[in-house]
Prior knowledge:
By secondary structure, the protein is mainly beta. It has 4 helices and 19 strands.
Amino acid sequence: ITRRFMITEDAAGIDINVHRPLTGDSNNEKQQVDFTVDIAGLGIIDPFRNIYSFILQNGRWNNAKMNLQPDVYGSNELKYTSLSDKNIFMGGNEYRYFDIRSIKRPGGNIERIDFRTPDYHVLLLPSDSREFKPYFYSQDLNGKYIIAVQEGRDPDTDADYLYVYFTLPSHEKPETGELYVSGLLADWTFGEENRMLYNPGRKQYECTMLLKQGWYNYEYVYMNRDVKDGVSSRFEGSHSETENDYHILVYYRNPRERYDRLLATGNTNTLNRMAY
């Protein structure tokens, strides 16, 4: 298992503003992240060539906006604004969830729990497409999960592994791509372990994953074979009102040095900072 970590110098200030895009189509489905970086006192001569910024939505790297350059530079401030469309994300939807903290009684969005020696098998309630449904706020973990148990004291040692069954009814299978169960439960990746298979007899997508007990968020992502970015809006819908976390990373590449310095990081949540 590998995990990415970063060490920041906290040498610059970052101010972040999230709003509906001011230009373009489908503004009600998207969110734009504008931010300003204060580099006063750092002595950076050419920020357009040596400063690189990243935007992460909910801590994900598979849809991150990378190597962004500022739109405006002046008074020791780098401005990434609505002049560019490179800082626009699909708003997505609030994540689906299920609760498998207990193996004795079904938790939230669980249809039933079966024990077939030597494993527990958890059948989730059938999902439905939310593509054309109106937005409805519900508190979530923004795609993450928490390991937890109800019948035990220490989740690290008492939590068991369970087979979890996902189903998504669909009258047809798109021929141009694949559907995946997505979230931190799959490490934000798209592989065989979280790929859904279409069952033509039952007219539904199906997937089985081995997961540790806890509280989980997830969504369904459609991956077109011709592009590397997944699209969740096909089955989840997308809304500018959706609550999301955004993380800004600002890197500096000094021509005289052989590494990239992480000058600063910034975080915001649209529930607190969304401008309409």
